Amino acid sequence: MNKNKKCYGIDISKDVFDVMDENDNHSSFSNTMQGFKEFKKKLPPDSVVTMEATGVYHVQLADYLFLQNVFVSVVNPLVIKRFIQMKMRRVKTDKADAQMICKYGVQNELKAYEPVSLQMKEARILTENIDLLVKSRNKLKNRLHALSHKSERTRAGIINPMKKSISELNKQIKRLEDELKQIIHSNYHDLYSRLQTIPGIGSSTAMLYPLYH
To answer: What is the pLDDT of residue 89?
Structure first.
């Protein structure tokens, strides 16, 4: 990293984000547009901001800073985790994590963040919702299987409603999967088609690949 630029590390969660600079100065802001503006006012020119990819929580702040012409780098959390392990740091707090993210930004070459398209954001949201529905369906299936070992009296009035719930979840999952396929086919059809020609790559894997690579 250019030594003339000041580096900031951000640990971000649903409601707040903690910031540490290379001099170990700490501050905290709300994960809202007001918090973004307050943080931006404190940034000197040519600042470098490093943060983890934390589900959906980092996206709005990263997009905002990008539009404000601030250099932002969003790093895979596994990379940060390995960096922390190499430094043998065991303290686990938001402040400590922000400090280590800052140190990573100082010591490594950073790739500039580029916002994803609206279609990509919609596809990722669909993927996350599908995953939640599938987990709910699997829990119900496991409970239904467990009931098969119970007495008839215990099962009475439980199995049919549970089967209906599973059926409804199947419909919701199918609807969201159809929406996801439409987005992938419309925007990443060539890549999707090429991936399916690779041995061992099924349609599901090929469909998810463009969303996270």
So the answer is: 66
> Looking at the structure, do residues 98 and 153 belong to the same domain, yes or no?
no
Domain count, the chain: 2
In a domain? residue 147: yes
Question: Is 112 inside any structural domain?
Answer: no
| pLDDT tens profile 104-160 | 999 999 999 988 777 777 777 888 888 899 999 999 999 888 877 766 665 667 888
The per-residue pLDDT for range 11-20, each reduced to its tens digit, is: 998 899 999 9
Closest listed residue to residue 99, CA positions, set 112, 80, 113: 80
Residues in the chain: 213
46: left (phi over 0), alpha (psi -120 to 50) or beta: left
* Structural domain that includes position 15: 7-107
CA distance 70 to 75: 16
Would you tell me how many other CB atoms lie within 10 Å of the CB of residue 139? 10
Please indicate, yes or no, whether residues 89 and 133 belong to a single structural domain of this protein: no
